[in-house]
Amino acid sequence: MTAPSTTPAPRRGGRWIEHWDPEDEAFWNETGERVARRNLWFSVLSEHIGFSIWTLWSVMVLFMGPEYGLGAADKFTIVSMATLVGAIVRVPYTFAVAVFGGRNWTIVSAGLLLVPTVAAFVVMEPGTSFTTFLVCAMLAGIGGGNFASSMTNINAFFPLRKKGWALGLNAGGGNVGVPVVQLIGLAVIGASGGPRVLLGIYIPFIVVAAVLAALRMDNIASLSNDTGAAKDAVREPHTWVMSFLYVGTFGSFIGYSFAFGLVLQTQFGRTPLQAAYVTFIGPLLGSLIRPVGGALADRYGGARITLWNYVGMAAATGVVVIASMRESLPLFTVAFIALFVLSGLGNGSTYKMIPGIFQAKALAEGMRGEEAAAYGRRLSGASMGLIGAVGALGGLGINLAFRQSFLSVGSGTGAFVAFLAFYAVCFAVTWAVYLRRPAGEGAQVTATAEAKPQRSYAEV
Question: Domains of the chain, with CATH numbers?
């Protein structure tokens, strides 16, 4: 069988793939896998730097001592605004892939990271107003959008059977940008360098990421701008259920990433250097385990992995509450890092559920083969931006909860109690919608046209 051409179309210019069918095993083995993996690696690089810039202010606030005139509440407000903008821009970034092409938008989105980095380089010094710092942190939020466009793009490159691994690796490689910027910050602080040193390190890497995307990535022509898919995704109840569940996993990961160092400084009196020695560990482990969550979901079903992951997150949060009340720094640190690991695992399993849910729905409605796969790709690609945006808003909620908790009781204990209750609700929703028997739509999907069992929501 002749593989569909991946030759760029002369009428478009640039690197455009006119035909792409990853579900065709012959095409995938002959041509598709090589091209998909190449795009994956350079997508990871751009998204990785995007995450670093997005979470840059979680490190910058550690540099901001008394001479900056900012209290703990001010610092939580700064990182909260970065989280908020990162969540909002995920929606337009998702659809930018369809408008401009995955490669083209990766070039643009990587280049845009120069704006917040250079702006922070210019203003980062004592005497700068709180409002100026707030605006710079909001500009850094555009780095959060890179995740949405990257995931939408990579989702189109891989077949359903490989999506858990591919999306987990893509997102995990991006998430690693959080601990990397914190590690670089640690090195800069340890070397008695200022915040401008940290910013100066990232500027050339942003340029390199944009150039490599231009040289090595591709656009898929079939990813046309489908406003109907966006409307269908908004009307689809599963989009909002998965958004809620992703608040519990990714919202926790990004919210804790921004807040961990500040909590250690504010509640346990750690110095910036002492806090920096610890803060990178949780995001690092949470990022590295995300592909494992996707792979486990591929094998056992994302809904099952997600369900029991929420049990683990609730248990770890319970230990954090006890440690916070007893003011036990070692127990608090270990339990908090465990929360990061579990949030990363859940990130992988929840994102694997998205394409599987829409594929299962297509089968339930009588679609088969490429028709079902195309339906799943169409709705899952459109919904990923919405789900990613709402999930990131969970990070905003976490930082605002910490801010209020410290203002009210002087510690983060109250916030952790609220998080514990939320994880319990996430467990209940996962079970009720995707695992309870009978499971609504999933219970109706009993056999294919050949009387073979079809995919149920428990297996997505």
Answer: 19-459 (1.20.1250.20)
